[in-house]
């Protein structure tokens, strides 16, 4: 099978640790890399086992290279301008979140992509994580009845890269905000509270969705959470589902008995977990977190012309929800 040739803009820690290896695992061939330093671009190519082109000017790379798509992983504030230049060059784009620092900026990029006839995909990796795809399947199938409510937690030490509530929401918690949209649809009401002090972040947020689902988000960006943590519990008419730390999903279906339920051993849960062997190496994490899944989806969209699931137009709604949450915090 012929590999898709992909160009990259950026070679920071996140991209070289997660995005480059995930793209290679998904079947991409690294055709070229552009950073602010020719040496850094060349060294990254060598590190990734590629004989592609090294650039210190991404615009020259866009003009020179013919490729299936461009992957942009740079400083968050630079993503919008970089993606717009890729669109002008007629390139399909995968960009790490955030894409635009507001819904207005996101909408400008979405319009440019539609006018330019190219695909723009935003890297909301949790949509492509196996645990959350399985949870989405349970919600949509109705096997546990209607989803009624949820509780979600995301906690991380974000103090090194987030200085305030807005940066935390758009650089760290954004994936979880997008995830609840992916799972439950659009939000009609938002109420939030915070107990933050500069880079030390604490949020409690209540949401109501068009579907009637209600739920709460607990966000914490503190030095206390050196062990990053996330989970989500969804309560249905006939049971609950608990997704824990991206690698375990428990499905409980309510049991109905003629006798008292404690008089038998009929209660049963289904547990989904990945296997773990020495052969999995670091790739296990890349799959479970959704990095390989999102890159596979991008490559497929580049090949078929299909609109990505987390496309630029859909991104506008996620960025708008982030701003609504920030506006609600008191």
Uncertain ranges: none
Q: Number of helical segments? A: 11
Order of helices and strands: EHEHEHEHEHEHEHHEEEEEEEHHH
Q: Beta-strand percentage?
A: 25-35%
- Tell me the structural class: alpha/beta
- Order of adjacent strands in the largest pleated sheet: 8-9-10-7-11-12-13-14
Q: TL;DR of this structure?
A:
This protein has 11 helices and 14 strands. It has 330 residues and is of the alpha/beta class.
Textual characterization of the structure:
The protein has 330 residues and is an alpha/beta fold. The protein is 37% helix and 26% strand. The chain has helices at residues 13-26, 38-47, 58-64, 79-88, 103-116, 130-141, 165-172, 174-184, 283-288, 291-304, 312-328, and strands at 4-9, 28-34, 53-55, 69-72, 93-96, 120-123, 147-156, 187-194, 201-209, 214-221, 229-236, 239-244, 248-253, 269-272. It has an eight-stranded mixed beta sheet. Strand 4 (69-72), helix 4 and strand 5 (93-96) form a beta-alpha-beta unit. Helix 8 (174-184) crosses helix 11 (312-328). The longest helix is centred in the last third of the chain and has 17 residues, at 312-328. It is globular. The termini are far apart. The mean pLDDT is 95.
């Amino acid at each position: 099978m012929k590999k898709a040739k992909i160009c990259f803009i950026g070679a920071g820690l996140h991209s070289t640790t997660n995005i480059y290896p995930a793209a290679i695992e998904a079947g991409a061939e690294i055709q070229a890399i552009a950073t602010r330093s020719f040496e850094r671009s060349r060294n990254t190519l060598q590190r990734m086992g590629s004989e592609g082109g090294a650039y210190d000017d991404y615009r020259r790379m866009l003009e020179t290279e013919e490729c299936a798509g461009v992957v942009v992983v740079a400083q968050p504030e630079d993503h919008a301008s970089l993606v717009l230049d890729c669109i002008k060059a007629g390139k399909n784009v995968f960009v790490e979140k955030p894409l635009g620092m507001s819904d207005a900026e996101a909408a400008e990029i979405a319009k440019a992509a539609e006018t330019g006839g190219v695909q723009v995909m935003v890297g909301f990796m949790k949509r492509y994580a196996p645990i959350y795809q399985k949870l989405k399947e349970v919600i949509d199938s109705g096997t546990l009845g209607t989803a009624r409510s949820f509780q979600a937690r995301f906690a991380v030490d974000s103090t090194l890269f987030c200085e305030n509530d807005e940066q935390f929401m758009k650089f760290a918690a954004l994936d979880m905000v997008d995830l609840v949209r992916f799972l439950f649809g659009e939000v009609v009401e938002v109420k939030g509270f915070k107990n933050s002090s500069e880079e030390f972040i604490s949020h409690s947020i209540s949401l109501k969705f068009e579907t009637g689902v209600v739920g709460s988000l607990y966000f914490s960006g503190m030095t206390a959470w050196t062990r990053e943590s996330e989970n989500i519990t969804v309560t249905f008419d006939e049971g609950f589902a608990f997704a824990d730390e991206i690698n375990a999903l428990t499905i409980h279906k309510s049991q109905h008995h003629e006798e008292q339920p404690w008089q038998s051993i009929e209660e049963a849960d289904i547990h989904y977990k990945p296997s773990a062997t020495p052969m999995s190496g670091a790739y296990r994490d890349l799959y479970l977190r959704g990095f390989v899944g999102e890159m596979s989806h991008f490559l497929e969209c580049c090949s078929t012309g299909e609109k990505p699931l987390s496309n630029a137009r859909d991104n506008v709604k996620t960025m708008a929800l982030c701003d609504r949450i920030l506006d609600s915090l008191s």
